[in-house]
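Take a careful look at the sequence and tokenised backbone pasted below. I need to know what the token row says about the fold.
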Amino acid sequence: VKTHFEPVRIRRIMKIRFILPALIMLWLLTGHEPAGAQEEVEDLIDLFESKGKMVALVSGERSVSVDLRSSETVQWQGVKGYLAAFLTNERFAALSSRSGRWQTLDLRLSEDQAEWTAMSEYLALVVTQDRIIAYDSDVQTFVESRLSRTESVLKATTQKNLGIVVTDTRALALTSKVPMFSEIPFRVRETVE
């Protein structure tokens, strides 16, 4: 027995799936933050390079290190709140203050340079010419989305538990605790300023 309820419910879910990421992106791109969002989390990790290793000192109590390969050079490193991350010409690595080890993701040969990097208390974001890579400290995993060869990244940013990447063809959003990008493709005549 078919009812009208199912199609109406599916349409409503599809609307919510579209509207929520659109509102999040609008919020970020216009620079508005809800009350209390300016409160910063104290950095719980110190990060430094020493004797061929990247060393993280977590809460001043324990140290977690990862050996750098002989061919690796550190291109970017950052610490914010619960998260430390670094990028070399060969891999992207991140450490949450709650975990006891570095999570690493090898880069492809064509990804030896990052076009964008951004970091918040919960997310580390790297954009290469081939893909968008984010590390979510809440679920302690990497999340990826491919970029087409003709796609240009216009903006990549993070705030608290939200990451946004805007290209010339689409906008992508990621929230911590949800290990996947939500995507909104732009229509033919839509542009981003």
Notes: The chain has one helix and 15 strands. The longest helix spans residues 5-30. The longest strand covers residues 74-80.
